[in-house]
Design goal:
With 307 residues, the protein is of the alpha/beta class. It has 3 domains: 3-86, Orthogonal Bundle (Arc Repressor Mutant, subunit A), CATH 1.10.10; 91-159 and 267-296, D-Maltodextrin-Binding Protein, domain 2, CATH 3.40.190; 164-265, D-Maltodextrin-Binding Protein, domain 2 (3-Layer(aba) Sandwich). It is 38% helix and 24% strand. It contains 9 helices and 12 strands. The protein has helices at residues 3-15, 18-25, 29-43, 59-86, 105-116, 129-138, 202-212, 226-234, 279-290, and strands spanning 48-51, 54-57, 91-97, 120-126, 143-146, 155-170, 180-182, 190-193, 218-222, 240-243, 254-260, 265-273. Strands 3, 4, 5, 6, 7, 10, 11 and 12 form an 8-stranded mixed sheet that branches. It has a two-stranded antiparallel sheet with strand order 1-2. It is rod-shaped, with a radius of gyration of 32 Å. The N and C termini lie far apart (73 Å).
């Protein structure tokens, strides 16, 4: 039994005439009649009551008609979905992130993508950068996001966005009276950096920024992650340069100040397999590259909160 058998049967049943069905199907009537007889012989029941004025489905034919329509719908739906998948309009994409990127950029990137591609399901996982690389090589991850990646010959890496870095301080620190803080003013201040592992990471990016500003920073503590870092700042251990998206986090006595002269930035990267030209991934990457992200919520709005 082939799909055309079902299609021919449904057409004859709807037209209640072999002649009209043959015209609709653009086939001659004798082959159509033979096709229906072959179908009846295969399933072992008569599907039509034939008369000089036309045909009507039998009781068995009525049951078969319902199931045949369902089968044709499933087949047509499968074709349509595969065609949409080939265009990048249907399917799912596996996305992973690491660390503080989840607090600002990633939710908005994915939100914008969902608006553009509502039929594509996005599955989001938290994976370390090394695990992202392994998952890409294993084939089940499509794209990963983090602030820093090692160079890998089989993995493509590109900058998605550059995020301002601000200074997280305790509410009682003398610098909270300033509208901005120059990078050079951090020269003698104890700093908290994160993450403590894996390295290289945002912590190393921060060390390089301090070096470019002409000083070697005094590291008071290496925190496990952004939340641990801000908790230490909130408790008065030291201050910490952090991505501006961290300003959405509210903790007691936590304030955020603008860093300037120069205004440091942290780059957000995405990684994917080199040579992976699947339409769904290509469409996702093109969408990410074309997104015009609005500025992150100003940290000034958070300066008076959290304490």
């Amino acid at each position: 039994m082939e799909l055309r058998h079902l299609r021919y049967f449904v057409t004859v049943a709807e037209e209640r005439s072999f002649r009209r069905a043959s015209q609709r199907l653009h086939v001659s009537q004798p082959p159509l009649s033979r096709m229906i007889k072959q179908l009846e012989a295969e399933i072992g029941v008569e599907l039509f009551d034939r008369s000089p004025t036309g045909v009507d489905v039998t009781a068995a034919g009525a049951v078969f008609l319902e199931e045949a329509r369902r089968a044709l719908h499933v087949a047509n739906d499968a074709v349509e979905k595969s065609q949409r998948a080939a265009r990048g309009d249907f399917g799912h994409i596996e996305v992973a992130y690491y660390g503080s990127v989840i607090f600002g950029v990633i939710p908005r990137l994915l939100g914008e993508y969902r608006q553009l591609k509502p039929r594509v399901a996005v599955r989001l996982s938290s994976l370390t950068k090394d695990r992202q690389i392994r998952a890409l090589r294993e084939g089940w991850l499509d794209v990963g996001f983090a602030r820093y990646y090692r160079s890998e010959p089989d993995i493509a890496s590109e900058i998605v966005w550059r995020e301002p870095i601000v200074l997280a301080v305790h509410a009682d620190h003398p610098l909270t009276g300033n509208t901005s803080v120059a990078m050079a003013e951090l020269r003698d201040e104890p700093l908290i950096v994160f993450p403590s592992a894996p390295r290289p990471s945002f912590a190393d990016e921060l060390l390089q920024l301090c070096t470019s500003a002409g000083f070697s920073p005094k590291i008071a503590h290496e925190a496990e992650d952004l939340l641990a870092c801000l908790a230490l700042v909130s408790s008065g251990v030291a201050m910490a340069p952090v991505p501006v998206s961290a300003a959405i986090i509210k903790l007691p006595n936590l304030r955020f100040l603008r860093l300037a002269r120069p205004e440091p930035q942290s780059s957000l990267y995405c990684v994917y397999r080199r040579g992976d030209n699947r339409p769904l991934l290509t469409e996702f990457l093109e969408t990410v590259r074309s997104l015009a992200l609005p500025p992150l919520p100003g940290f000034e709005a958070c300066r008076g909160e959290g304490g």
